[in-house]
Each structure stands twice: as C-alpha cells, then as structure tokens.
C-alpha cells in the first residue's frame, strides 16, 4: 500500500503553480501585526473552498481551519502572517511597495522581511493537499494562522479571545520558520531551540544645566554611557562561558542640543536567554547595574525600568522532536539536520502550553543553494547571505516552498498517517 505521505504529496505537482502565485501576491501585499485583514481573508476563503470549518477574527485577525478525517489524533500546525516596517531592497519583480501607518501615527514601508508569507503559503499548500486526500490519513488537522508574531502578542491575543474553547485540544503542535540556510535544508533539535527575549526601556534621571556648567548638573548622558559599559559585563562576567545569553543595547536617546545637559536619558535594550533561571539572573542584574550607576552619579532619583515585551523560550519536547527528526531523516535524507541553537525568539509556544500539548518547532532553509555554497567557499556567509529582518531577505520560491510543504506533511502524517498516533 502507498504510504500516507506519498498519497498526500501526490497532489503537489498539481497545486504548485497556484501556490507559487499565491506566495508572490502575499509577498507584494504585506501587512503589519494586528492588521492582517487582506491576508486573513484570503486564507479563510481558501480553507472554506477545501471544506475546512473556519473561524475568523480570533485575536483580531487570527484564522483557524479544522478538518477531520475519521477518528484519530489531533495535530495543530501554525503559521504566522505579519510583516515588518522595512523598506524592501530585494529587487524582485513582486517586491513590496506597500506603506502603512504605524502605532505612532507615522507612515512606514512594509515588507515580508522575515518569511511569514512563505509560512502561510506552505501551510495553505499542506492544508489543500490534506483535503484532497482524506483517505490517506485519520484524525483532525488544525491549521492555525496567527497574527502579530513580530510584536510578541499574537498568540496570547488568540488565547485571550477563546482559542482553547474554539478548537479541539491538540495531541501535538508544530510550527516551522524559514531561515538563512540553503533552500532544501530542514533542521530540528530536541530541547532548547529559540531563546526567550525581553525588551526593556530604562529611563535615567539627572539634573539639567548649561553645557558650560557641568558642576551644576547630574549628567544623564554620562550615566547612560557608563550603564552601557556596565551592562556588557553581565554576560561576560556573571554567566559561565557555557551558558548562552545575549544582551544588546539597541537605542540611546538623550538631549536636543550640544550645549545643554538634559534632565533624562533613555536606554532601550534586549536580552536573550534559554532558560528561566538565566533569564531572571540577567534581568535582575540589569536592574542592579542601572541602579548602581545612578547612585554612583548622584542621580536625584532611581531609574525607571519598563518591560516593553517578552517572548518565551521555545523548548521542543524531546520525544516529539526526536520522533520528528527520525521522520525528517527518513524523508529528506542528507538534507535533514540537527539545527543549532538560535538566538531568535517566538511566541508560538504559548499556544501548545495553553493546551498542555507537546510541540516541536523546526527551521527550513530559504537561500538559493548555489548562492549559499559560493559564499561558504569564500568564507563570506555572514556578509553575503541576507538574514531575517534584512531589507534584502527573500526566500527563493523553489525549493523553499516545496520543502516547507513536505516538512509540514511529514510532521502531520507522522501522527495522522495510518500508523500514526500520539
């Protein structure tokens, strides 16, 4: 008997042209987080055509399609839909020229600079193939299209809007992300995969004065400079060399004139860690360091520390990821890998955690293999291969699209195939 995955993927050649065209259209029409109305509408329309029970507007623009084919496990597959405020510089014929008004009221260029358009297209492609081959699998498939991943609030918004009451409880959940590896690459790992991320805004309070009379001031610019130096020692001097973490100060804002010492300075920073103990240690150290520098400077009051957003760590279930890794190796051969730790962050894990379901998250490559190989031979991968969030990042359509659809099929059918089970 033909294996379930072969039966499902037998329809791939037939849907490929339409899927590629859908991707180009989606790439040319990106939408910022929480405003994915066009994308969500197109997704919902396709799912309905294929017989899915569709719910729209979960967490503002989230879409869920549910398809059942007999009794069996419940598998949830997730794709994120939102784009970024980036001006596209890929030179592609289907490049975005879209602009949108951001939360601050400013008009911004918008681009799918992180590959979410590829994620949506891959999941839709798999959803169509599963609907075309109901006899090849048993159980329930949940196709979840999430808004506002980049803002870190999309998964939580769907949960707060009753997602757990609107869909069956999944036995297992999966998600994937296109990354700057050669197209065709598939990589998963048990345990820690993506870091937690915390973004903070620190406001330092000084006392303003004329630039010629610093003795009358408490200079928050100097205070901020000392904080930046001190903060860099948290990872390098307070964590073991075997404990991965990143602390980046991405923004310093102070003053309006070269001859005026301002009253305040603002630092914005980002922290990446892989477990809760390290996360708490680093965040506590940030509070301690900025408070100490303020005290050393004689600041009139202690700094305020505002938590802007937080992403949980993505920690794959070892059993699920192990089983999935075996399935990937069986299907993709030498293109299946154990991927290394990634310092990027995600909010996907909030969904399976809410259901108490195990999950696995993996990466697929999106860079033209010849381009990647040439850069590798030159030793210039870091310089020549665009990464996610770059204005030059755009996955090659093929074989990225086929790989993403196949990877989702392998994951789903490892549980939903004739011999599958939770």
UniProtKB/TrEMBL annotation:
Keywords: Hydrolase, Manganese, Metal-binding
Cofactor binding annotation: The Mn(2+) ion enhances activity.
Cofactor(s), names only, from the UniProt record: Mn(2+)
Signal peptide location: none
Residue stretches making up the Peptidase M20 dimerisation domain: 199-295
Gene3D superfamilies: 3.30.70.360, Zn peptidases
MF GO annotations: hydrolase activity; metal ion binding
NCBIfam families in UniProt: amidohydrolases (TIGR01891)
Entry-linked PANTHER family: METALLOPEPTIDASE, PUTATIVE (AFU_ORTHOLOGUE AFUA_6G09600)-RELATED, PEPTIDASE M20 FAMILY MEMBER
Protein name, entry field: Hippurate hydrolase
Organism name: Streptomyces leeuwenhoekii
